[in-house]
UniProtKB/TrEMBL annotation:
Keyword set, alphabetical order: 2Fe-2S, FAD, Flavoprotein, Iron, Iron-sulfur, Metal-binding, Oxidoreductase
Cofactor(s) annotated in UniProt: FAD
Protein name: Ferredoxin reductase
UniProt cross-references to SUPFAM superfamilies, sorted A to Z: 2Fe-2S ferredoxin-like (SSF54292), Ferredoxin reductase-like, C-terminal NADP-linked domain (SSF52343), Riboflavin synthase domain-like (SSF63380)
Single GO MF annotation: 2 iron, 2 sulfur cluster binding
PROSITE patterns: 2FE2S_FER_2, FAD_FR
Positions of the 2Fe-2S ferredoxin-type domain: 270-352
Keyword Repeat included in the entry's annotation: no
CDD domains, A to Z: fer2, FNR_iron_sulfur_binding_2
Ranges where the FAD-binding FR-type domain occurs: 33-131
InterPro entries assigned to the protein according to its UniProt record, in alphabetical order: 2Fe-2S_ferredoxin-like_sf, 2Fe-2S_ferredoxin-type, Beta-grasp_dom_sf, FAD-bd_FR_type, FNR_nucleotide-bd, MRET, OxRdtase_FAD/NAD-bd, Riboflavin_synthase-like_b-brl
Length: 352
């Protein structure tokens, strides 16, 4: 081994001032042992306000499960912002996220992403996944809630002859509906997928106030493994229907994209200190601590803005927070708080 040292020293001198990792980075932009990255390989326009972004992940990425989501980081004006997006591709394919233009980060991804761009990544996670044993499925989605379900359909329908999936999808118009052509083609080709479309801009919303409409389109819905994904109102209606039917909301697997938050207290915020990241941010009393941290470029633990997933739980080191669902002000040192529904109520120190 001693004979190799002069060669190693010569190589180090030859690439100075670059380190070995920086040198590999010249040849492969996603090579990094410190930060998971992916290079964009394709951008597909889905609707005028949405796009699917395919990427080749680098070292450290593990194949996702159908239905999971990942944190995507993008730099805007020199600050790295992180957001959660459902993965729409099937496992084993180049991963992709389908993004709708809602907010600054999503807008940047939809309209400015180009092939060759580098995205910052966090590992895929989430429990909105297919059952371990094959069984008939009912999928109910609205808007961009189709995204994680699309990963499931791409996984099941073309590859499992015994697949039995009823998909009820709601969108405002046909032009706004994600994956509409692909879903229709899959439904026409494979008898294992039955597609029910509901365009609320031209007809009534799918009625879940009683079981009647669901009985008409899927008579055996009570015995199927059911998945619901979409806005808060849509998901809440489904929960209520399952509860009234006697099957119980526990029979649903749910993914919410938004939760209903009340207005905070303007001017009631304070200085938020992210102790482990060594950052301080002045916060208002209306923005969630999750948003405050993400806008400061901090990789915040989070699943989605559902407020009940608890993957965003963070130690409160000092100060108090306001729960934007109830208005309650609370907080004790060491308490775990949900940053996705909490705003600063004065100065706050977080264990991030």
């Amino acid at each position: 081994m001693k004979r190799l040292r002069p060669l190693a020293q010569a190589a180090s001198i030859a690439i100075h001032p670059l380190g070995v990792e920086e040198l590999f980075g010249l040849f492969d932009p996603v090579f990094s042992r410190r930060q998971l990255r992916g290079v964009v390989t394709e951008v597909v326009r889905e609707t005028p306000q949405s796009a699917t972004i395919y990427f080749r992940p680098g070292y450290g990425w593990r194949t996702h499960k159908a239905g999971q989501w990942a944190r995507i980081g993008v730099e805007i004006n020199g600050v790295r912002h992180w957001r959660s997006y459902s993965i729409s591709s099937a496992p084993g394919q180049h991963p992709s996220v389908t993004v709708t233009d809602i907010g600054e980060v999503s807008s940047t991804l939809v309209h400015n992403t180009r092939v060759g761009d580098v995205l910052f990544l966090a590992p895929a996670q989430g429990e909105f996944t297919l059952p371990e044993e094959a069984r008939p499925l009912l999928m109910m989605t609205a808007g961009s809630g189709i995204t994680p379900v699309m990963s499931m359909i791409r996984t099941l329908i073309p590859h499992q002859k015994t697949a039995d999936v009823v998909l009820i999808h709601s969108a405002r118009t046909e032009e706004d509906s994600l994956f509409v052509d692909e879903l229709r083609a899959l439904s026409a080709k494979f008898p294992g997928l039955r597609l029910v479309e509901n365009f609320t801009g031209v007809s009534e919303r799918f009625d879940m106030s009683t079981p009647a409409q669901l009985d008409a389109v899927c008579p055996d819905w009570r015995t199927r493994a059911a998945y619901v994904c979409g806005p808060e109102g849509f998901v809440s209606d489904a929960e209520a229907l399952w509860t009234r039917s006697g099957t119980g909301a526990a029979g649903l697997t749910i993914e919410r994209f938004h939760t209903e938050l009340n207005a905070g207290e303007p001017g009631a915020g304070g200085l938020v200190t992210f102790e482990l990241s060594d950052k301080e941010v002045e916060a208002d009393g209306e923005s969630t601590l999750l948003e405050i941290g993400e806008d400061a470029g901090i990789l915040m633990p989070s699943g989605c803005r559902m407020g009940i997933c608890h993957s965003c739980l963070t130690p409160l080191r000092a100060g108090q927070v306001r729960d934007l669902r109830t208005g309650e002000v609370h907080g004790e040192p060491g308490e775990l708080i949900q940053t996705c529904v909490s705003a600063a109520a004065g100065s706050v120190n977080l264990g991030l």
